[in-house]
């Protein structure tokens, strides 16, 4: 049990004993005491003043006296400031905690809880390569999955590949028109990049044809967009695909093979993986069957043009199409089918969809439709909505070729990490292979940390130069602190000093206590990050821990400590800090090197 929860527990018991009033532990607000006040933890009293008919000061004095007197293994003093009860925790509590955990390489990881969660992320389209937005999605989804695992959940990581639809047909039509039988092999291009170029070519030709129809035929823009030959060809190709035209299917399979090879290369490079990959081409038919069942139940209705809809206006939404008049599927059709498919295979308690906030409405509709259909998967649907990544110049647009390519960005980050590392000049004894690995570790770590350090709900602007600094709120700073600690531990071990469990008799110095207090929070931070689906809580925590250790080490010597007891204590602190930094960074998908 965390110290915060213990304080809530004993405070609840104290209120019951003093005032014969039962208060839920969840109603007790406990915070770390602000630096300008004396104390370790603060109990906020205002919520109980009216209930207990006490002034804040009187309540604080009575409650503080009771807690100190009846919990000598926790508190040794208190003070009350304007409705805040500040409690001082005894040194023995902190040193006992350190003695029990400094060898625990799994510190902060909870036991299995028997619940299963699915996390779906990445969701690429096979008409373009992964870009910066996909990176935030992949890093966020992967990290959430790992954080949930650390909280005891059985997690299934999944990906849905959008491998069919009008956007896919656009790349296929453009390849037929402009490729002259070129392939990734013949051009030396990565497959997803190769196909993505034809998606851009489609858009360029579409614009040209629209402008030509407006100029030569006098059409309106809306009319020209509908009648452009290349768009009509793409729409016909979609119909041919759904009707199983052998030539269209063969081209579709061939181009998808190129793209999948490219995706796999990128996933391997960024450390993203999945337990199960779904394909829209395999799930949309199941969704169509459910549309028929929904019509039978009266959940859906059919218009005169044969399109099928659901009326959600009574639920504060609007009407939503679930099948086009030509019988083809829409995105919501496939997602309904996929929700059923995933639940039937894994029976997960919750299914988390990591998708950008531009799809907020879509997932409200999805969950509501599934509930109205009475699907067992419905209540477990949760949309983890996150803000888009933008450039200083604004939003990225795939069809216009203005995105930041994921592969190019990773390569650029590795290049910057090499430049920055060489400027520091501390890796002259590294082999070539070690340097290659180090540059990749620092560059990719900087990228992941930067994209995950921001609350997922917020949009963010990406700045690669800022992300890879070795000072400040960055991945490389934390990696450097970890490497420094490991260097200290190696040096002390080489000198024959073994870290052992001891009986601490000397009082804690403020710098020592600050680290232990920070370390004790780690399990709570992991729990909160899972509850709120927010890896930035982990990022902020491990940055603060690294910063606290840096301050400690700049002020207090380990090798030349005042006594053998202090030397052991500080080495224990260093070791547990290293374990915690490593675990925290692993939850973000970031590797911490042993030396830098």
Question: Which consecutive residue ranges, at least 5 long each, have pLDDT under 50?
Answer: none
State the share of residues found in helices, binned by percent: 55-70%
Oligomerization state: single chain
Termini gap: 36 Å
How many helix segments?
22
Q: Count every beta strand, where a strand is a DSSP E run of 2 or more residues.
A: 14
Residue share in β-strands = 5-15%
How many whole angstroms does the radius of gyration measure? Answer: 29 Å
Across the major sheet, the strand order is: 7-6-5-11-12
Shape by Cα distribution: globular
Biggest beta-sheet profile: 5 strands, parallel
Description:
With 596 residues, this protein is α/β, with parallel strands linked by helices. It is 56% helix and 11% strand. It has helices at residues 3-19, 46-52, 56-70, 91-101, 132-150, 166-178, 184-187, 191-217, 221-227, 229-242, 246-270, 280-297, 331-346, 360-372, 406-424, 432-452, 464-467, 475-494, 510-520, 522-531, 536-555, 564-587, and strands at 30-32, 41-44, 75-81, 84-89, 116-120, 154-161, 276-279, 301-302, 308-311, 319-323, 350-356, 381-386, 389-390, 460-461. The strands form four sheets. A five-stranded parallel beta sheet has the order 7-6-5-11-12, with helices on both faces. The protein contains 22 helices and 14 strands. Among the domains are: 3-89, Gyrase A, domain 2 (2-Layer Sandwich); 164-273, no CATH class.
